[in-house]
Specification:
Layout lengths: L3 H6 L1 H8 L8 H28 L2 H7 L4 H38 L19 E6 L12 H7 L3 E2 H7 L6 E2 L1 H21 L3 E2 L5 E2 L1 H7 L19 E2 L4 H5 L5 E3 L1 H4 L4 E10 L18 E11 L4 H18 L4 E5 L11 E9 L4 E10 L3 H6 L1 E5 L4 E4 L1 E9 H11 L7 E2 L13 E2 L3
């Protein structure tokens, strides 16, 4: 959530900054609501002063010859009237404050200065490329043809069990999927200094509000029936980041580089608005696995932390020897809560294009303000908002897709990347089963 003090100070500047997203901030509505809140506060203060003054009038009335009981009755009548007005104004102020908060909860984060202008993903700016796409001397198959040819990928059974956009995997393909998770976790924990964390896969509304999925993106979520208000997580970002909700970290707890968590979890997304896109295979599923990286850092560390976190996700692709490119998202494509995002896009031969496999984002204090996630600044001794970051390190299903397509052989078998072979008991190829 944006800092309401900064919005009050210069709402026009906030609106101009949000235009980079193509988002129209309604300055008039905000200003009118804030004026109502301010007037309610002023009126309340005036009534409190009037009440204080009225309570002193008993003596004055008695001095003027009014009987004591009559004086008390007059003053009490006045005090009761003022109390009723105060209660009414307090309720008005509460309602207006709630409207202000709901308005600000629906406003996205302000993009960083480095975020390029643009309306869609076609305006994203390439920053770097790694590796060269392989040149095949045989017709390239996509991951669905390969997986089905191996007898290890089965969308039909997934559809029978649940519905569209669910998949069943068998044998070595399922083992490779599991191996990828273990490999990613080991890399991030042992080499990049993350602490593994296990979290619930079901969260409440407060958690989703804290990271920015609610109230605006409820249609993208799977809500569970019942009175609890529970949802399946769309990403481990939600429960892991909410570890810091309503908490103050001491400076020593942050260490030199902040708090780092690595978490494997399933992710559940309704994919509202994406119907007809990537319906074939495992690119866009309702259920998929991901290894998520989350960092909680001091404000002055967040820019460097984003570069470092992105590098950690890149290290997975490089170890697997998968060609990819790194792009910075434009204003029109950046996520609701993010202030700056890098996407890593892996090369998929069957699509003859790069496709997103990781998003790494810095949120500044936007999520922390919603969650009241803070640290105690030793220089002042006072709590201040943390900065939060997260990124996929990586999306497991899409990584599996990339391996199938980039490592495919003319006979339909698929080579196993060298770094994964120890996790598969020395298996060097996925063969038909």
């Amino acid at each position: 959530m944006l800092d309401i003090k900064a919005v009050r100070q210069d709402p026009e500047a906030v609106a101009a900054a949000l235009e980079k997203r193509g988002y129209h901030f309604d300055v008039a509505t905000f200003t009118a609501l804030d004026a109502r809140r301010k007037q309610a506060d002023i009126d309340s203060q005036n009534l409190l002063a009037e009440r204080k003054s009225a309570s002193k009038k008993i003596g004055q009335l008695v001095g003027q010859g009014v009987p004591v009981e009559d004086a008390k009755a007059q003053v009490n009548e006045t005090l009761e009237k003022i109390a009723g007005q105060i209660d009414e104004l307090t309720e008005q102020a509460r309602q207006v404050q709630g409207e202000l908060e709901e308005l600000l909860l629906s406003v996205p984060n302000i993009p960083a200065e480095q975020v390029p202008p643009g309306a869609s993903e076609t305006d994203n700016v390439e920053v770097a490329r790694w590796g060269a796409p392989r040149v095949f001397d045989f017709p390239v198959k996509d991951h669905v043809e390969l997986g089905e040819g191996l007898g290890q990928l089965d969308a039909d059974t997934g559809g029978k069990i649940t519905g569209s956009r669910f998949t069943v995997m068998y044998g070595d393909l399922a083992r490779m999927h599991r191996a990828l998770i273990q490999f990613m976790l080991n890399l991030h924990i042992q080499e990049h200094g993350y602490r593994e964390i296990y979290v619930p896969y079901i969260v409440n509304r407060d958690s989703l509000r804290g990271t920015g999925q609610l109230p605006k993106f409820e249609e993208d979520l799977f809500r569970l029936e019942g009175e609890q208000g529970y949802y399946l997580i769309p990403t481990a970002e939600v429960p892991v980041t909410n570890v810091a909700r309503d908490r103050i970290f001491e400076d020593a707890e942050l260490g030199e580089g902040g708090v780092r968590f690595a978490c494997h979890s399933p992710c559940f997304r309704s994919e509202a608005g994406s119907y007809g896109r990537d319906t074939r295979g495992m690119i866009r599923q309702h259920q998929f696995e991901k290894v998520e990286l989350v960092q909680l850092v001091r404000p002055e560390q967040s820019d460097a932390a984003l570069e470092q976190l992105t590098g950690h996700a890149e290290a997975v692709l490089q170890a697997l020897e998968l060609p990819y490119r790194k792009v910075i998202l434009c204003g029109g494509d950046i996520g609701f809560s993010a202030r700056k995002t890098y996407d890593l896009e892996v090369w998929l031969p069957a699509q003859d294009s790069y496709r997103e496999i990781s998003s790494c984002s810095s949120f500044g204090d936007y999520q922390a303000r919603r969650m009241q996630a803070r640290w105690r600044n030793p220089a002042t001794g006072k709590p201040e908002l943390l900065h939060t970051l997260n990124g996929s390190g990586l999306a497991v299903g899409r990584t599996l897709v990339a391996i199938l397509e980039n490592y495919q052989q003319a006979d339909g078998n698929v080579l196993v990347p060298a770094v994964l072979q120890p996790y598969l008991g020395g298996t060097t190829q996925l063969r038909s089963q």
